[in-house]
Write a structure and sequence with these properties.
Length: 176
């Protein structure tokens, strides 16, 4: 299944929307829906015939996708790490983050930022500053996290380089 959600435009207002405002919002949704439908149809044409395309309209993209996943009993959700905003300041966009935090279905997130452009998150940087390379590994071990990181990247990919430096500092200290 392929899915795309067209977000209803936000219309800040103090009073009920005028007919003109409502018509404008409807035109924007219709235009975006047609564009998204063409895109999903194009992608669908390159996939096996069993792949169905869905274009939905909703006020909240993550909630709309969660509902679709639940209704369709999806086995695996595959998402790009970032959507339209492509805000590289954060490792994951709103939709990917929502599925990580609140999804009930296994999720595979395709990182769309080249590895060399990934930066540690502010929390990872602060942890390194606070604990230092060796101390960060010790701190993670205190919470029982370090052992679970052996074969997975629980944190951002940029964390892997911080973790390698931490482990190297720890082994240097232990070997000395």
């Amino acid at each position: 299944m392929l899915a795309h959600v067209v977000r209803s435009p936000e219309m800040p207002h103090r009073l009920p929307l005028t007919r003109e405002d409502t018509e404008l919002a409807d035109r924007i949704v219709k235009r975006n829906y047609e564009e998204a439908k063409g895109y999903v149809d194009e992608l669908q044409s390159r996939m096996p015939s069993s792949v169905l395309g869905h274009v939905l309209v909703g006020d909240h993209v993550p909630a709309t996708l969660h509902q679709l996943v639940d209704e369709q009993a999806v086995d695996l959700v595959v998402l790009s790490a970032h959507g339209y905003s492509g805000n590289l300041r954060f490792l994951y966009g709103e939709v990917a983050f929502s599925f990580i935090m609140y999804g009930k279905t296994p999720v595979l997130i395709v990182q769309d930022i080249p590895a060399h452009d990934l930066q540690p998150t502010p929390a990872e940087v602060r942890a390194m500053d606070h604990y230092g390379p060796r101390g960060l590994v010790d701190a993670l071990g205190t919470f029982g996290i370090e052992d679970s990181l052996e074969d997975t990247e629980f944190f951002s990919p940029a964390y892997a380089s911080l973790r390698s430096a931490s482990l190297a500092a720890r082994s240097d200290t232990l070997v000395s």
